[in-house]
Each structure stands twice: as structure tokens, then as C-alpha cells.
């Protein structure tokens, strides 16, 4: 697998990685052993000025990438004061063919650290925190063709912790950090059901409709019910690696970037451009290294798949 600078002209599946100040776009060509990559700078770029580059949501539909909500992580170098924008309702879309950003209709509710996922050509957001750092239960759905947001029923439960979203068995699931229950959007979006699946905590990835979680340096396949989870080979080398992106691509789980945190023998933070791949469809899954990213390294703020 190689990372190359290239224009995009074919229909492929691309992993999108958001770093602290820019994103990486890679072409999924595992069979041919190559990647195509270029950076998307989050800041002033032609017709775009994205201020909120922390705690945002990211999803892709209809060949475009969407950066939703979130806040600023800027700190005044003179006073040390943090930016007052913790959460916003801003929405930006990115067209990778024309390399243009466009501002879209804002969310009905400003939010940060919320669940966000694409389902059936639309984007669902739920939960999170307001600009006053108050946890909320409101949910809404975005139609990219109409460029409109509509309210969904509120979550049954709101928790004072960050939440994330994923689509499992064709339904939106909302998970809160540190909470064993999962909230599921049922009946075509008419209500949220609450189930206690006791899923493991940790980075998650969907591969072939199955959910995998990296917990205690091991990848485990989770079920929708309280069945024993299946363990895939451990990844002890990731114990000191934090802030990485994890996503499912084809039959594989991919880990991108991150940093090596300070330890007893190392007081420095080392940003990584590493790419590690695990084919979970193999009879004996083993981790292998892909070619490192060429223009991106360090902590990843969000991941999404983009089909062009």
C-alpha cells in the first residue's frame, strides 16, 4: 500500500481522516496495494473559513463530506484564554472533485461531542453538549438534497458524557461514554428504544455489518445482544498509542496516525503517520503495516468513508 499525490477520477471508497488542522483523503485500493492521498486544510481555503475544528461530527453522503457543529480549540497565546465557542450549529460540505467547501443549512440546535452518522442518504445527529456545556437529548436529521434539517424524537436518556453514533443492522445507535446502554432509532425514526448490550468501551469500526471494538489492546467482535464477544488477535503495540483514527475498509480494520504519549522513559509526544491494517475476514487475522501517510501525522479528530 502506498500514499501518492493524485487527482480523483474513478468511483472508489475513500477514508477521510481529520487531523487537528487538516484532513487526509485516501483512495481505497487494497487489492492493488496502493493509496491515493491529498490534504484538505481546515481553515481559509478558497470559499471556506471553518473555525470549529474540535468536537465536531463528520459524515459523508452523495459523494460529499460534511463537517458538522463542534467548536474552536484555539487558545490566546498571550492570555492563555480558550475560545468561547464550545459548540456551534455550523455545517460545511466538501466537494472532493472540485475541491470546494460550501456552507450548508445550520443545525436546529448547536452541539458538540455528539452522535453523528449517515443512514439511507441522510445524516442523523443526536445528543451532545450545548455551548454552555449542558448535555442535551435533542436529535435531528439532515436531507442533503433539500439542504434542510428536521427534528427527530428526543433521546430517551441524556448523559453528562460524550456520545457517538454508528449504524448497526441498518439502525442508528447512540452510545454514551461510560454507559452500557445503547439507544436505537426505531420504527423509521419515530422513537428511541433503550437496550443494555454491555458493549465494550473503546474505538469502534464496522466491517461487513459487524461491530468491532478495540479494548485493552484487543479487537473484539460485538453482538447486538448479550452474547459472548469474539476476540480477534491482540494489538499490544497500541498500548501507548493514543488519538488515532480507526475505521473499517472492505474486509479490514485500519488504524491511522495518532501519537505516542509520554511515558516513564519518554517525556515527549511523538506524532505518527503510521497505517496499520487487520483483515478480520482472514482465517488467521494478523496485523500488518501499510505505507505511512506522506502529508499527515498526529492526532485524528474524526473519520468517515467517502464514496466518489
UniProtKB/TrEMBL annotation:
Keyword field: Kelch repeat, Membrane, Repeat, Transmembrane, Transmembrane helix
Pfam family, one: Kelch_1
SMART domains for this protein: Kelch (SM00612)
Residues that span the membrane, as ranges: 12-35
Protein name listed in UniProt: Uncharacterized protein
Amino acid at each position: 500500500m502506498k500514499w501518492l499525490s493524485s487527482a480523483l477520477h474513478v468511483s472508489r471508497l475513500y477514508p477521510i481522516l481529520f487531523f487537528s488542522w487538516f484532513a487526509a483523503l485516501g483512495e481505497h485500493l487494497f487489492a492493488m496495494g496502493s493509496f491515493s492521498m491529498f490534504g484538505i486544510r481546515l481553515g481559509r481555503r478558497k470559499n471556506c473559513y471553518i473555525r470549529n475544528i474540535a468536537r465536531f461530527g463528520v459524515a459523508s453522503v452523495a459523494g460529499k463530506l460534511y463537517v458538522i457543529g463542534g467548536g474552536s480549540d484555539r487558545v490566546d497565546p498571550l492570555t492563555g484564554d480558550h475560545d468561547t465557542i464550545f459548540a456551534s450549529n455550523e455545517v460545511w460540505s466538501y466537494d472532493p472533485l472540485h475541491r470546494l467547501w460550501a456552507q450548508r443549512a445550520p443545525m436546529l440546535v448547536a452541539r458538540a461531542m455528539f452522535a453523528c452518522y449517515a443512514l439511507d442518504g441522510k445524516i442523523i445527529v443526536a445528543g451532545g453538549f450545548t455551548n454552555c456545556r449542558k448535555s442535551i437529548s435533542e436529535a435531528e436529521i439532515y436531507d442533503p438534497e433539500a439542504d434542510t434539517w428536521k427534528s427527530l424524537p428526543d433521546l430517551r436518556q441524556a448523559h453528562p458524557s460524550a456520545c457517538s453514533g454508528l449504524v448497526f443492522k441498518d439502525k442508528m445507535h447512540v452510545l454514551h461514554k461510560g454507559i452500557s446502554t445503547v439507544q436505537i432509532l426505531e420504527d423509521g425514526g419515530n422513537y428511541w428504544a433503550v437496550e443494555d448490550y454491555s458493549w465494550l468501551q473503546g474505538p469502534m469500526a464496522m466491517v461487513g455489518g459487524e461491530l468491532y471494538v478495540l479494548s485493552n489492546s484487543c479487537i473484539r467482535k460485538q453482538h447486538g445482544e448479550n452474547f459472548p464477544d469474539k476476540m480477534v488477535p491482540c494489538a499490544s503495540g497500541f498500548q501507548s498509542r493514543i488519538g488515532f483514527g480507526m475505521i473499517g475498509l472492505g474486509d479490514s480494520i485500519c488504524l491511522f496516525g495518532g501519537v505516542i504519549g509520554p511515558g516513564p522513559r519518554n517525556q515527549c509526544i511523538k506524532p505518527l503517520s503510521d497505517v496499520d491494517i487487520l483483515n478480520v475476514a482472514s482465517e488467521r487475522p494478523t496485523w500488518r503495516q501499510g505505507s505511512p501517510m506522506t502529508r499527515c501525522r498526529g492526532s485524528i479528530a474524526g473519520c468517515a468513508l467517502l464514496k466518489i
